[in-house]
Each structure stands twice: as structure tokens, then as C-alpha cells.
Amino acid sequence: MDVAQTIAQVRGAVAVARKKGSVIGLVPTMGALHQGHVSLIKAARADCGYVVVSIFVNPTQFGPGEDFDRYPRPIDQDLEVCRHEGVDLVFAPTIEEMYGEGTLTWVQVDRLTDTLCGRFRPGHFRGVTTVCTKLFNIVQPDRAYFGQKDAQQAVVIQRMVADLNMPLEIVVCPTIREPDGLAASSRNQYLTSDQRSQAPILYKALRRGQEVIEAGLRDPAKVVQQIRHVLDQAPDIRVQYISIVDPQTLEPVDRIVGKVLIAAAVYLGQTRLIDNILLDLDR
């Protein structure tokens, strides 16, 4: 496995692989790799002849007061995970390598970033779309892999790729969960033992929403009430939002029909957790 810190090194290595006819797969990450990341790497490894994992804690997607400075950066452990999973190249650039002395150019996806997490994290998705565009330009992958846990991010990236005619496929892989249902996340390690014991209630609440919808409830407000009722059972949970939206437009639905996304964000102490369930009632 090769480890590159410069754009030139990545381009050189990928050029060699492409000359050999390899399909190039990219898994963009901020490191602190967990089983969710591993599932993305495995999917890329199954599909592609050459797999690149980027490890970069991107400062432009963090807002004031967020956790950029304390975000975990266990690079040696991450490299071992990549090595174990058969990754061909890890791109672990510095901030200076990615942004130089700063950036005057941004990639912005409108409307899709105004709802859900975008309401509460202004500028976040602009940072995500800009850094992903840079990574796509550097690596020039045929496929890039993202997780369903970050559903809004996946939709935004898919729309960006389509709108800008980028020559790659975005592959969205299922959410990976702990045995108790908590979605795998690098931020889970922030939780105290007491908070960790409460955290699975987020998925339990979303499942309650799924159950009442599948039982015939079609009023989004009443489904949200059911979800909130479950979350209220955890003393330290603070709800940021619970939304039922169209999975493509991310706009709230007036009535639950066809495909819907049930999404929520909560705080446990200072730790923000997100999760979602995608439903297709036409199946």
C-alpha cells in the first residue's frame, strides 16, 4: 500500500493504474475509520481494480464552535485498517496541500443544502462539495463511495456530479450499525458510557416512525410525534430536528406516499448524532 501526501504523488500513482486498465475507486473520509468506512472500502475493493482512500479532516466543512480541533486523527490506526482491507493508495494531505494559502473558489449546491442538517450548519455543505470536487479532480475516480447514514450529503454529491457532468458514478452504501442499532460514526467515541447507553434510542425512535407508517399512518406530523415520544424517554437527548422528506428533493412531504426519508439529528451532551431510514411504500 502506498501513502501519498501530495497531489502530484496521487496523480502519478493513479495514472500508472489507469494505464493498466484498472477501474479507479475512491473512498473519501476524514479518518477515524470505523466499520462504516470499512464497508465502503470493501464495496470499492469488490468493484474496482485500484482503490484510493483519502484521509483529510476538512476544515471548510466545520463551523465556528464545532469540533474541528478535537476531531480524532488516529492516522497510524487508520493506515493499518486500510492496509488490512487491501487499499492500494491512501491520500493523506495537509491543509496546505489541499488549500494552499486559501481558496477563492467554492462549489455550492443550492436548495438541497437548505434543509435538514443544512439549516443548522451554514456553510457545511459548501465545504463538503468543494473538497469532494477537489478530490474528484485530483484522483479522477470512476466511482466514489459514500454512506447512507449521511443521506443529505449523498444526495447533494449526486446532484453536484450530475449538474457539473463529472465523469464518475456515486455509489451509496447501506448504513452500518452497532449490535444495538447505533449507526457507526467517528463521533461516537465522544460519548460517555452513560450517553452511549442512551444513544441507540435514536434508531429505535426512527424505527417507531417506520412501524407506524407501515401500519398505515400517512400524516407526517403525527409520525414525527411518535418519533419524538420515543426520544423523550432518554433524559439527555436534545432533539435538533425530525423530518420526513422526499429522498431526492429533501423537501418535507405533506403526505407519506411512495419513497420517503425519515431523518433526525439529536444531541447527547455536546455530541451531535444523525441517522435516517429510507422507506419505499411502493414495494
Characterize this entry briefly.
The chain has 283 residues and is an alpha/beta fold.
Summarize the structure in words.
- This protein has 2 domains: 2-173, HUPs (Rossmann fold), CATH 3.40.50.620; 186-277, 2-Layer Sandwich (Pantoate--beta-alanine Ligase, Chain: A,domain 2), CATH 3.30.1300.10.
- Helix content is 37%, strand content 20%.
- The chain is built from 10 helices and 9 strands.
- Helix 6 crosses helix 7 (151-163) and helix 9 (201-214) runs antiparallel to helix 10.
- The protein is globular.
- It starts with a strand and ends with a strand.
- The model has no long low-confidence stretch (mean pLDDT 97).
Task: Output the keywords.
283 residues, alpha/beta, Rossmann fold, 2 domains, 6-stranded parallel β-sheet
CATH class of the largest domain: Alpha Beta
The portion of residues forming beta strands comes to 15-25%
Structural class: alpha/beta
| Structure annotation, total helices | 10
Between the first and last Cα atoms, what is the distance in angstroms? Answer: 43 Å
CATH homologous superfamily placement of the largest domain: HUPs
Largest sheet: 6 strands, parallel
Q: State the helicity in percent bands.
A: 25-40%
Query: How many domain units?
Result: 2
CATH 2nd-level architecture of the largest domain: 3-Layer(aba) Sandwich
Secondary-structure topology with pairs:
Layout: E1 2-4, H1 7-19, E2 24-29, H2 35-47, E3 50-55, H3 75-84, E4 89-91, H4 95-99, H5 117-120, H6 124-139, E5 143-147, H7 151-163, E6 169-173, H8 193-198, H9 201-214, H10 220-231, E7 237-245, E8 259-268, E9 271-280
Parallel strand pairs: 1-4, 2-3, 2-5, 3-4, 5-6
Antiparallel strand pairs: 7-8, 8-9
Helix pairs in contact: 6-7, 9-10
